[in-house]
């Protein structure tokens, strides 16, 4: 598969993920929350705090998607192993860890304010684990791309 072809597929996938996430954040989650509030009116005071918590995770998610798109552009230019991609992967790693920490802290605060249940906090640990795994994988890729970029630069200087 040629670099441009791969980059185009990556861009299409990134845009697709962005559109799907927009539907989830903008339609599915609010409608699920409204359904819960309709069936259990005693939860109406918990709807907005949970909506803000979950929608807040979308900010760093979309910033990370932007970094992924920049990496796809660089791949299309046949610049897969450059320092910029290593930095972008590091940013993605940091955003994944920060987003996970935000979600865990928000979940814990809502539990402390009696707007959640301990079972929800325990269940959300699965989401937290996935976020940490993505952060660690992005950090490892960042390190590997950094090393490859260093080797590439050294080889370019060799006559």
Keywords:
about 160 residues, elongated
Largest sheet: none
Quantity of strands, as a count: 0
Give the C-alpha Rg.
20 Å
Structural class: mainly alpha
The helix count comes to: 4
Large-scale geometry: elongated
Residue-averaged pLDDT: 94
Low-confidence stretches: none
- Taken in chain order, the helices and strands follow as HHHH
Instruction: Calculate the terminal CA-CA distance, rounded to whole Å.
Output: 30 Å
User: Helix content range of the residues, please?
Assistant: over 70%
Percentage of β-strand residues = under 5%
Question: Could you characterize the architecture of this molecule?
Answer:
The chain is mostly helical and 159 residues long. 88% of the residues lie in helices and 0% in strands. It is elongated, with a radius of gyration of 20 Å. The mean pLDDT is 94.
Question: Could you give a short description of this structure?
Answer:
By secondary structure, the protein is mainly alpha-helical.
């Amino acid at each position: 598969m040629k670099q441009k072809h791969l980059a185009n597929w990556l861009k299409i996938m990134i845009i697709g993920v962005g559109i799907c996430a927009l539907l989830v954040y903008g339609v599915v989650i609010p409608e699920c929350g409204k359904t819960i509030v309709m069936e259990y009116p005693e939860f109406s005071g918990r709807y907005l705090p949970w909506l803000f918590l979950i929608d807040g995770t979308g900010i760093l998610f979309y910033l990370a998607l932007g970094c992924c798109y920049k990496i796809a552009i660089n791949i299309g230019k046949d610049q897969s192993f450059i320092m910029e991609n290593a930095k972008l992967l590091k940013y993605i790693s940091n955003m994944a860890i920060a987003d996970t920490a935000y979600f865990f802290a928000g979940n814990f605060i809502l539990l402390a304010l009696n707007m959640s249940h301990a079972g929800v906090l325990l269940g959300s640990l699965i989401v937290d684990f996935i976020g940490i795994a993505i952060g660690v994988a992005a950090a490892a890729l960042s390190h590997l791309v950094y090393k490859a970029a260093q080797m590439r630069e050294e080889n370019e200087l060799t006559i």
